[in-house]
Every structure is written in C-alpha cells, then in structure tokens.
Amino acid sequence: MNLTLKIWRQSDANDKGKMVDYKVTEISEHMSFLEMMDVLNEQLVNAGEEPVAFDHDCREGICGMCSMFINGEAHGPDRGVTTCQLHMRMFKDGDTITIEPFRAASFPVIKDLVVDRSAFDRIQHSGGYISVNTSGNTQDANSIPIAKHAADEAMDAATCIGCGACVATCKNSSAMLFVGAKVSQYALLPQGQVEAADRVKNMVAQMDLEGFGNCTNTGACEVECPKGISLDNIARMNRELMKASI
Amino acid sequence: MALDSKVPQGPLKDKWTDYKNHINLVNPANKRHIDVIVVGTGLAGGSASATLAELGYNVKSFAYQDSPRRAHSIAAQGGINAAKNYQGDGDSTYRLFYDTVKGGDYRSREANVYRLAEVSANIIDQCVAQGVPFARDYGGLLDNRSFGGVLVSRTFYAKGQTGQQLLLGAYSAMNRQIARGKIEMFNRHEMLDVVVVDGKARGIIARNLVTGEIERHSAHAVVIASGGYGNVYFLSTNAMGSNVTAGWKVHKKGAYFANPCYTQIHPTCIPRSGDYQSKLTLMSESLRNDGRIWVPKNLEDVTAIREGKLKPTQLTEDQRDYYLERRYPAFGNLVPRDVASRAAKERCDAGYGVNATGEAVYLDFAASFERYGSEQAKIQNISNPSAAKIKELGQEIVRAKYGNLFQMYEKIVDENPYETPMMIYPAVHYTMGGVWVDYNLMTTIPGCYAIGEANFSDHGANRLGASALMQGLADGYFVLPYTIGDYLSDDIRTGKIATDTPEFDAAEKEVTERIEFFVNNKGTHSVDYYHKKLGKIMWDKCGMSRNKAGLEEAVEEISALRKDFWKNVIVPGTATEYNEQLAKAGRVADFLELGELFAKDALVREESAGGHFREEHQTEDGEAKRMKEFQFVSAWEYKGEPKDAVLHKEALVYENIEVKERSYK
Prior knowledge:
The structure holds two protein chains of two kinds. Chain A is an alpha+beta fold. Chain A has two domains: 3-111, Roll (Ubiquitin-like (UB roll)), CATH 3.10.20; 118-245, Alpha-helical ferredoxin (Fumarate Reductase Iron-sulfur Protein, Chain B, domain 2), CATH 1.10.1060.10. Helix content of chain A is 34%, strand content 11%. In chain A, a hairpin with a 2-residue loop joins strand 3 and strand 4 (73-74). In chain A, helix 3 (148-158) packs antiparallel against helix 5. Chain B has a domain at 266-428: Flavocytochrome C3, Chain A, domain 1, CATH 3.90.700.10. Helix content of chain B is 38%, strand content 14%. In chain B, helix 3 packs parallel to helix 14 (468-488). The model of chain B has no long low-confidence stretch (mean pLDDT 96).
C-alpha cells in the first residue's frame, strides 16, 4: 500500500518543531508499524536526509521503549499493543497517518518522536521497591504462602511496561495508572506491607512534584494501556494513600 | 599469557564455600572509597549494580536505553531454574549441575556450573523477598513448570513474562540505591572503550546518546554486563539495540574472547514473513510443555496446505508426523533447544515446511485443550461434557498459563492460535560464547569483569531453557559481589582514579576519530545495508549447520564486506546530537569484526557440540558428534585483524560427571 505520513519533526528540546509530510510506497500489510518507519528512514538516509528519530528496542511489546501518538491514539488504533506490535494491516492503501510524540509537560521532547520519560524513573526511586538487601539468607521463598488470587492480581499490576501511554492519553497528563500499578503490586503482597504507608505517600508526592496532573476518572488510560492495566489500581492507590494519611 | 581458570582446589561441593571463607574482604569504611563501573542493566548488570551499592561501593551504571528497566532481559518469557525441589520430584543441586553440563554438551566448566546450581535456590528466595509475583498454586505456594532437556519441574515463572518480573525486581533494588546516591545512573549512554592503566581496567569512554558528548569515567574496576551478540545475524530475537561493542572493546584491549561460534538457535520462534523484517519474535519454550510439534506425513498434504486448500486441523492423527516424539521418545517435545531446532530444519529441508517460505512447522495445543478440559470438567463436576465444552475449559487453562504469548502470536501473524496450530521456526536467540572469564568472573584484563550473557562461562555449547535468567542473577547477586571484593581489597589505598591521564587521552582520541570518520565519510550505503549483508552470510554459512567450505567462504566474505563498509558507509547527521544511525554504525563495525572471528572459531572446531553443528561430524542418525580432542574452551587473543587472532585453549576436566554421548532418546 501507499501512504502519506505526517510526522512531527523537532531537532532538539529547544526547537519549535513542525509537522512534515512524507510518502512511502509498497508497504506490506504484514509489516509492523516500526518496520514501515524503517522503510521511511532507509529512504531518507539514501536521499541524504536525516532519518526520523523514534524510540524502540525489543520490538515485541515488552520493553516499553517505543511510544508514538498515531492518528490521535497512543500506540495507534489497535488495542492491547505497543507501537512495535501494531501492524500495517490496521491501515488502508492511500491512508494519511499522523505521527506525533507522546505529549505531556513532564515528558519533554528530546528529538522528533523521542521524549524524556525519566520522571517515571524518579517516581520509582522515591519508593518503588521493597527494602531488602541481597544476602542469600532471606527466608525460604515458600515460607509465606500467598493466596493465588492475590499473587495473580499483583502480577496483573506488575505487567506495566512503563511506556507512558497512560500519561500521553490522559487529558490531564496524569500518571496515576502508572503509579497505581506499582503501589498495587506491593500492596497486594505480604512483603510489601512493612513500607506500604511511606511508599504510597512518597511516590504520590514525587508524582505531583514531576508535574503530572490529577485523575478525573475518564478511563482513557485503561483503554490505551498496551498491557490492560486496570483502573482498579488507581482506586487501590487512593485507598492506600487514605490509609496511610489517617 | 597462559590461561588460569583459578578454580579452587577441593571437592566440587565445597569449592565455593571454601573460596568464600578464604578470600580477602574490604571493610565497610573502605568500600566508600572504591568506585565500580557496570555496563548494562539487565539481570546481570542490574543485580550486580544493586548488590555492590548495597555493600557500600560507589557504582556507576550505564544503559543505552532511557531507563535500566528496558534492558533486553525484560523479554525473557518462560522462567528461571532453581534446584528447590519444591515438587519433590528428585531435584537437587547435583541434578541441576548435571543437567546443565550435559545440556551444554560437556563444553562448560564444572566448578562454575556447580556454583551456579548451588546459588540458584537463593535467587528465588531473594526475588520473592523483593516482591516478584511468581505464579502460585491454590495453596499459595510457588508453582513450577518443566523445560527442555530435563526430567524434573524446577522452573519458576510469572506467566510468560518471567524476565520482565525479575528485571523489574533488580530495577527496584537499583532504584533504592539510586535514591541513596550509591548508584549513579547514566541512561542513554553507550560505552565505546575501556581504559587500561598500568595493566588494570580503570575506566571507560562513553558517549551520551542525547548530546553526543564523549565522557570519561574512572573506577577501580569495570564490569561488562552488556548481553549477547546474536544481532551479528541481523535477524534475531534480541532487541534492536543489543550489540557486542562493550565486549568487543575489552577484547581489543586484551580480554580473550571465548567460543564465539557457540550460538543458540531457538526452536520456537515466529517464522519470518518478508525481507523488510527487522527482528524475530520468540514463543517461549514453556509452550513445548503443552504443545506438540508436527508436520504432515505426506508431501501432498504439505502442498495442499501451502496452497490454502487444506487446513492443518483437517489432518487426522495418522496423517501427522510428530517428529520429536518419534525420534526422541524419552524427552519428546522437551528435547534441548539445539536438538529441536535441527530436527525442524531437517523436516523443512526435506520439503515438509508448512508455510509459503517452506520454513515453518506446527506447534499444536489441541491435545492440551482436551487434557486440561477433561480434568477441569471433573473438578467442576460437569457430567458428560460435550467436546466443545471440554475444549473451552481446556482453553481457559492454557490462556491462564500463556495468554500473553497467544495474544502476541495473534497480533503478529493475524491467526488465532486457539483455533489453528501455531507456526514456528528456529531463530537466533542467545550466544553461549562471550568474553573469557576465570572462576572469579574476571577477564584476562585485571579488574575487568564480564557477567551474564556477555561472558562465556556456564552454558557450554548449548544453554538449557530457563538457565539464562538463573545465570544472570547468580552472577550479579551472589557471585561477583564476593569475587570482586577479593580484587578490590588491594585498592583501598589507591584513591580516586584520575581521568586526565595519557591513557584516557588516548582512548578518547581513538573513539573520537572513529566517530569523526563516520559522520564525514561520503559513502553510498546505509549502515543497515551492511548489517543485512553480514546477517545473511552468518545465517547461510554459520547458522544451524556449518561446513568447512562454507565457513572458509564466510571468513573471506565478511572480511571483504568489512573493507567495503569502511569505504562506503554513509552516516547522516552530526556527532553532537541524538543520532541513532551513528550509534548503529559503531555497533555494526564491531559485528563485522566479531563475525569473522566467529566463522574462524567454527572452522577450527572440527567437531559438533550443542549449537555448533559441523556437517562433517555427525553420528549415523544425524546427531552432533563430539570429539575428545576438542574438550577445551577456545579463547581468542586479539592481534589486529580477526584472521590474526591467536587461539589459547583451556582444557575442560570432568571429575564429577561422566562424559558420554548426549542422548535424549
């Protein structure tokens, strides 16, 4: 298929940036979206132009590195996928596709479609861990049974890949789904109880400090989350915060 | 230099304990004055960084991604082995050791593997304490699954995302130390050289991938944890950025590179679909617990399937060839990876491949749906369940176990694997070879260590499933933190290492000159053009089976391709900005050297062992035929061009395990 691409180009954080049109031809429906971008970039390199910068790494939907806002949706039109898992069969011959970076005040653009998501790391530094040293002498892994449903729910929360689609999608640029997922994982496990109160307070404080907005229960984040992280995690985070504050 | 593996004396089971009891320690007050650089933040690098920082060292960690959490360990699916014997099926440290040495086709170092098996149980304890949500059974205890090449269930897992959960565990441990200021994290940085001062590794040259700035970082020791080099094949299951550069740079500065030809071609990957393909996707080996692998028995059926006139589900049992169950009745679909991959290739080469390219076999879950469904019907007390009901109940169980993998398959292939069998084909997945290390995990450069997939040590010629995660975390959490202390105990009076020295000047100059060359070269071909050409040579001539003539051609062709690259490569943009093409150019340049050494190593190794299959050396039934005279590690010393590399041999001695023909029949 032949496509017209409208892509955000911005040389660095200080550049104003603009949309630029490109044409790609003979795109196979079996290609992934990023393979289509590879075709464009190869075309640009061979023409002596600068290729479009975009983040990507594992290309199997787990590292969370790829981003892109495609036709107004984080990770594009398909559900339950990252951009690297989005396939061109979701588009038609002759389509015009608009490609922008994940936009949020807390995710400044580095170049073109590459944004700085280090705010997520800083939130994790503030409490996204259980304080246990490596010793080889912690207790046996089976000494505390954990109900299967609790372990499964913790796992569901822990599948967050930290891509930032929730923030990019939210009209308030809220990071509550991301923070809620981490808080929930530990809140559901006995190992996480000891530091639970401090953890949720510190992580929420850091989240606010980074400039992420508040949650107004629209639920767009849950829809666009490539890993199907549930809004329940935000509710649980709020409960944990309430518990910790009284 | 003679190779000294520094394996401690004494009985196998006491070596590690005795060693730990007798090494030198660094007191906590002195650790504060010692710096360690760790390159890479996967399971090995992440766990090492966190543990060294907990101990009190000042750690500087480097990742080329935007966060340590994105290292490619995250993509490991199936699980992690540990000799816990929670299932009471006869597992033990010795059995894990035995399976690993046998699985590696008797080409790994006994003492290292035993230590790995010994600390494996600690890993699970540590990870559970960190909040890693492993799968559990209804009683709340940890669940296990089975993997290829073993007869026990010792694999711990978190759905099909075990690597992700373990990495996030190590990342959380890092975060705690970053918050304390004990780890200084350098994201979007790439190591471009190691700096050796007075014969010791004392720092690195790194490039800030956002600004292009070249930076000097000093330390008392440098740890390479940069993963494997599977991307030398262009197409592999590795991440796009995975590269050999850190390992190759230390090789060029004096570290021997061991067994480059030992590569793992994983049997269950999604087949390639076209020339534009950028990477291949793995379907976890754990699927072989419940899936049966087959091709049609008759070539007419193969043709009909390829033409779309026949569906695989229409073939009756007697029209199918479950070739692994046929050839290896004892292990069936759970033979080790190298065996399963070659068997798939054998069927496809004989014309039985089931997709348009002729390079695919079926992985079928119908029997599992039936088995689990019947079991569930009994549990749920459903009398006389219909076949459809049984299938539905069975599918629910399979969805709970591998749901994310099935979803991933469907998104890529656009076929529903619950209704029609998956199509799979082998792909490059892991490299057992790597930087040579002794028992302390130190390379032949004093003070330079290599851990995880970046080193060569524990998997011999073939790695068993669920053992990479085990090795990465064993090295980082439980081995390196001890062994490095022994070395650093000599450095308590050294003080900060200066970076304004001739050694740093020289290393930086070399790095800068290479970058200047790339951005100024008026070439004609893109970096990918060369990478794809290299990948094709590697796959065709150094792939699942190799022969003398092909390997000799590969050496010549790679050497010629490298010369062409240095004349005609084109890199757009400048050196002082975010420039992915520039980063890639440096990585491909190193692959072009490694690839030649790889072919040379495969040429010299006149035997078949594990993943290294030389057509000249096979048994009557086409199995790998080892040669007694090749019972050694090939450690290559850099001498300029790859063709001039000098071979050093580390003899492998087996005192605790009988070396015999590896049979899975």
